[in-house]
Write a structure and sequence with these properties.
Blueprint (H helix, E strand, L loop, with lengths): L11 E6 L4 E8 L3 E9 L1 H5 L6 H23 L6 E9 L3 H18 L3 E5 H13 L7 E6 L4 E7 L3 E7 L5 H11 L7 H7 L25 H13 L3 H8 L6 H6 L3 H29 L3 E5 L6 H8 L7 E2 L3 H4 L4 H12 L18
Parallel strand pairs: 1-4, 4-5, 6-9, 9-10
Antiparallel strand pairs: 1-2, 2-3, 6-7, 7-8
Helix pairs in contact: 2-3, 4-13, 5-7, 10-11
The structure holds 5'-O-[(R)-(carboxyoxy)(hydroxy)phosphoryl]adenosine (KG4) and zinc ion.
5'-O-[(R)-(carboxyoxy)(hydroxy)phosphoryl]adenosine binds next to helix 5 and helix 6.
Length: about 350
């Protein structure tokens, strides 16, 4: 991408993200340089409830937004007057949480006369990869966005226009990880725990049937898999081991290993293997369909090591790009990055911009 300004002055965008349980702010310069990226996680607040509690999330965002934005500006050595725009997540997400970031962004823009750019969170996840790999990505690209709230396949064309090819009809992939982990007593979020335990189990030990979708075969469904895991757990009488783990909330991997018998490790490995197969099979078919020249995998589940290994060992005829783990999960650098093409096109938002819980990208 070309530089936005003809002068030598760098172009800086402040990104603000508050769609779920992370309050984040970042300053990105000239499309690709992350000058700062601050993420305040609310994990400890929500962990004891086994999932994100929307009311608590809004309250935590309110507490964190000022210090997080100040820290991002300080670390970047940037003042408001140095900003070309503020990019803020406008949806999808929890409305109360989105409103905190958005109201704050609008206030700064109003006071300092800075242009406002609303960014779709899913587009942000795609731009986490664009930010890091930029010109190496050839278009059209196939983007697999897999997080706690989303499981989508998009065709990404030059200039960042999108076409939705498939999506989950029930749980998102990350949600399936979280629900299975919760069922087995590992607490929230479950993806990272299962990711760490799966290599100790046999992925072929428990056979789960892959889903077949009527209508659009590129759509996903994880509810059948979740039910199959539940049945397996019920028939194996795991109450005692699950109760032991429930007392260890937030434990280390060594504690989880100590309290997880081989049969449960095998179950976890087989579950993760099946989720990865569901994701990769559809990604490969849709990439073929659109004649993709690259595959982008992003969102929290993109930090899964099993998924990364499966994608890189698949010998696909196009390169596969993952964000580094820190940019896979929610952050504001990806939101700032998604703001650059909009800044270039002069696509600014007015102060009427609304937070939208179910905002679609395409
Ligand atoms: O992108 P993200 O931070 O937030 C949303 O936009 O939802 O994704 C969070 C999700 C959670 O469901 C979490 O369990 C999952 O990503 N996740 C993982 C891993 N790290 C985070 N899932 C599988 N393996 C991981 N290593
Ligand atoms: Zn996300």
């Amino acid at each position: 991408m070309t530089k936005l300004s003809s002068s030598t002055r760098p172009v800086r965008i402040l990104g603000i993200e508050s769609s779920c349980d992370e309050t984040a702010a970042a300053v990105v310069e000239d499309n690709t340089r992350i000058l700062s990226s601050v993420v305040a996680s609310q994990l400890s607040t929500h962990a004891k409830y086994g999932g994100v509690v929307p009311e608590l999330a809004s309250r935590e965002h309110l507490r964190a937004i000022v210090p997080v934005v100040s820290a991002a500006l300080d670390q970047a050595g940037t003042g408001f007057r140095d900003l070309a725009a503020i990019a803020v997540t406008k949806g999808p997400g929890l409305v109360g949480s989105l409103l905190v970031g958005m109201t704050f962004a609008k206030s700064i823009c109003l006071v300092h006369g800075i242009p406002l750019i609303g960014v779709n969170h899913i587009e942000g996840h795609i731009h986490a990869v664009v930010l890091e790999t930029g010109p190496e990505i050839a278009y059209p690209a196939l983007a697999l966005v897999v997080s706690g709230g989303h499981t989508h396949l998009f065709e990404v064309r030059e200039g960042f226009t999108y076409r939705l090819l498939g999506r989950t009809r029930d749980d998102a992939a990350g949600e399936a990880f979280d629900k299975v982990a919760k069922l087995l007593g590992y607490g929230y979020p479950g993806g990272p725990v299962i990711d760490q335990l799966a290599p100790y189990g046999d992925p072929r030990a428990v056979h789960f049937t892959l889903s077949r979708m009527k209508g659009n075969p590129l759509d996903f469904s994880f509810s059948g898999l979740k039910t199959a895991v539940l049945r397996w757990v019920q028939s194996h009488h795991l109450d005692a081991e699950i109760a032991t783990r429930r007392k260890l909330a937030g434990a280390s991997i060594q504690d989880w290993l100590r309290t997880t018998p081989q049969a449960t490790l095998d179950l976890l490995a087989s579950f993760q293997y099946t989720v990865i197969e569901e994701l990769m099979r559809r990604a490969v078919v849709s990439a073929e369909q659109i004649g993709a020249r690259s595959l982008i995998v992003s969102g929290g589940v993109a930090s899964n090591r099993g998924l990364r290994e499966r994608a890189s060992s698949a010998r696909l005829p196009y390169p596969v790009f993952f964000p580094t783990p820190a940019l896979s999960t929610d952050n504001a650098a990806m939101i700032a990055a998604a703001g650059f093409p909009k800044l270039q096109r002069g696509e600014f938002d007015s102060f009427d911009l609304r937070a939208s819980a179910n905002l679609a990208l395409a």
